[in-house]
Amino acid sequence: MHWVRTHLVGLSVTAGVLIVGWLVMMIGQKLLTARIQNPRRLYRDRKLLSTAVFVIGFIIIASVWGRLVPHHGTFFGLIGAGLAIALKEPLLSIAGRIAIFAGRIYDAGDRIQIGDSSGDVIDVGFFYTRLLEIGNWIHGDQYSGRILQFPNAQIFGAGVFNYTRDFQYIWDEVALNVTYESNLDAATKIMLDAGNRYTQDFLQGAEKQLRRMQQYFLVPDMELKTQVYVHVTTNWVGLTMRYVVDPKKRRAAATFLYRTIFDEIQKRDDIEIGSDTQTITYKPAEPKQAPPHLQQQHAGKELAREQAEAQYDTQSLPGQGAKQDDEKAA
Hints:
This protein is an alpha+beta fold. It has three domains: 2-86, no CATH class; 111-162; 170-265, 2-Layer Sandwich (Alpha-Beta Plaits). 53% of the residues lie in helices and 17% in strands. A five-stranded antiparallel β-sheet has the order 4-3-2-1-5. A three-stranded antiparallel β-sheet has the order 6-8-7, covered by helices on one side. It starts with a helix and ends with a helix.
């Protein structure tokens, strides 16, 4: 009881800060929900509110308790050193959360890549960020179904690639290989028409976003219209179409483009899909003749072999030996 009476001010301030903080959170979240219609902005503002209440409340409570302790300068030094050692990672994660919101590194709903992990941000907590993973064993930047969690402190040591911050589109490519005999101009037109047909609905919006981004960053002028580039290999002529696309629709866009392109190619007789080819030339080997001295040795060996076979046949047949003796006697 003596300790409670001695530290009554600190306990009262702590309880008051907790109650006021809870009330601010409740009232603030209701006001934000009533005034903000955009779900992403509502989520971000609610997270900012909770972060601000936590940091301010922690500072007030620590200041009050520090003043109640004798030699409060030493107290704060020891507390700070202890927290820095024992809670290094959690404190870095809290600092990371503040940096994420203050620096607009990413927000809920953004598609990001950090390290070898990619996904859509579904939550930015005090200590961890959670992603709905894409890729891994799934191709085409589609969801794998796993929830990926990494500490917020990781942003201080790794690059963060944001697919949708400030400019919500990326460039993608589809390739088509045709033979040397194909009508190159017709194939190029088919690809351009397919790309323009796909991007016509959102191209103006992408141009507006690019101009807005150029107001805040040193971004060069970039061509957003569909383009087709040509390169030649030893097997085919390669056509590569570059176009802008929503990063969350890359696979669907590629499927639409390839279907449209192949449907048009099948209507023509002057375009043929290229493939790997190999030319094989067969040349029969000419018989080689042995040198004269080897030919003589070979002929001698053949003659000796034939004589030996003849002698063997004579000795092995019944009556042949006696008949030869009679012939010799006559």
